[in-house]
TrEMBL record:
Belongs to the polysaccharide lyase 1 family. Its cofactor is Ca(2+). Pathway: Glycan metabolism; pectin degradation; 2-dehydro-3-deoxy-D-gluconate from pectin: step 2/5. This is Pectate lyase. Binds 1 Ca(2+) ion. Required for its activity. Its EC number is 4.2.2.2. It comes from Canna indica. One of its GO terms (molecular function) is metal ion binding. It comes from the Eukaryota. Keywords: Calcium, Lyase, Metal-binding, Signal. Residues 151-348 form the Pectate lyase domain.
Length: 371
């Protein structure tokens, strides 16, 4: 069962929102607290232009096919790629890995690997997970495409440490990760998380947790994020629903880059999305994130997202409400905001769609702090 999302349109307005100063460290950087980043795309504007082109092309194809009663094109380039390819996605699940856009487009997930089916929603032993559980599949080495045998709610006793080259594919079932610890992507790459409900996540830790078949280690107290990305790259989160977590719904820090967050629904939360560890952590200067076709919905307060350093393409999202502000930034980020819809709250003191936590400007180039 696929998550339902609002109709997405491509708007002609092109707005570049830029913010500024406050200043960072990571595995992706060769020097401590250096802004040099091995994995950052050298021309992020070209990635943003490619997304624009893909959206425009999909929109045109959908309009041309509108008279065909059997056509399934929506104008969304991601969904049209995997759901309208002429084959049944159930027989060709791994096609999804070819459908990413933006900075996370190279996330292959478990493509080329076997299908692993989660049959057991339990999480009794985070050090020695049982075959059939989500944790057992997530920690394996090599590519693995994880699916689910039926609807299930998984309450994790400790953080789910996902190993590289994994897809968590909830299509065909209603899969909830809820009421316990949630997902951590720490120093891993090539992860796809698709069509999963993640909510009511809590802090966990002070326990041993396995991260691979050959390693487990002591985990300190976690923040309680829905999805925590820590020094990760080539990450794609698509068609997920996130709400009610102890800290952020999605946080990406410590030099993470090559991330796309798309087609997802965020609701009922305060600090929605933090992108960047701190203002003085230089390696986050190489953070590059695409945020596309999402709905920022009911009872959200702020950080949709909150950006530090880096380059952030926020395109064709639906911001239906907020209590403080929608997009915030500091430490000289570039926020390329295009084709978004903002519906401001009734509160006259909370109508800011964007908030600069230092200096803010609205021009089509990176800002420099005024004298």
């Amino acid at each position: 069962m696929l998550l339902l999302h609002p109709q997405h349109c491509f708007f002609s307005a092109h707005i570049l929102l830029l913010f500024l100063p406050f200043a960072l460290f990571t595995a992706a950087s060769p020097f401590p607290n250096s802004s040099v980043h091995f994995y950052a795309h050298p021309d992020p504007d070209s990635v943003a232009r490619e997304v624009q082109s893909q959206v425009a092309s999909s929109h045109r194809r959908a309009l041309l096919a509108a008279g065909d009663k059997d056509q399934c094109l929506t104008g969304n380039p991601i969904d049209d790629c995997w759901n309208c390819s002429g084959t049944d996605w159930r027989q060709d699940r791994q096609r999804l890995a070819d459908c990413g856009i933006g900075f996370g487009r190279d996330a292959m997930g478990g493509k080329g690997g076997p299908i692993y089916v989660v049959t057991d929603p339990s999480d009794r032993d985070p050090v020695n997970p049982a075959p059939g559980t989500l944790r057992y599949g997530a920690i394996q080495e090599g590519p693995l495409w994880i699916t689910f045998s039926r609807d299930m709610t998984i309450r994790l006793n400790e953080e789910l440490m996902v190993n590289s080259f994994k897809t968590i594919d909830g299509r065909g079932a209603a899969v909830h990760i809820a009421g316990g610890a949630c997902i951590t992507l720490q120093y891993v790459s090539n992860i796809i998380i698709h069509n999963v409900h993640i909510h009511d996540c809590v802090s966990a830790g002070e326990a041993n947790v396995r991260s691979s078949p050959t390693h487990y280690g002591w985990r300190t107290r976690s923040d309680g994020d829905g999805i925590s990305i820590y020094g990760g790259r080539k990450i794609w989160v698509d068609h997920c629903a996130l709400s009610h977590c102890a800290d952020g719904l999605i946080d990406a820090i410590m030099g993470s880059t090559g991330i796309t967050i798309s087609n997802s629904h965020f609701s009922h939360h305060d600090d929605v999305m933090l992108l960047g560890h701190s203002d003085d952590y230089l390696p986050d200067s190489g953070m590059q994130v695409t945020i596309a076709f999402n709905r920022f919905g009911e009872e959200l307060v702020q950080r949709m997202p909150r950006c530090r350093r880096g380059y952030f393409h926020v395109v064709n999202n639906d911001f239906t409400s907020w209590e403080m502000y929608a997009i915030g930034g500091s430490a000289n980020p570039t926020v390329n905001s295009q084709g978004n819809r903002y519906i401001a709250p009734a509160n006259p003191n909370a109508k800011e769609a964007s908030k600069a936590h230092s200096f803010f400007c609205l021009i089509k180039r990176k800002c420099t702090q005024p004298a």
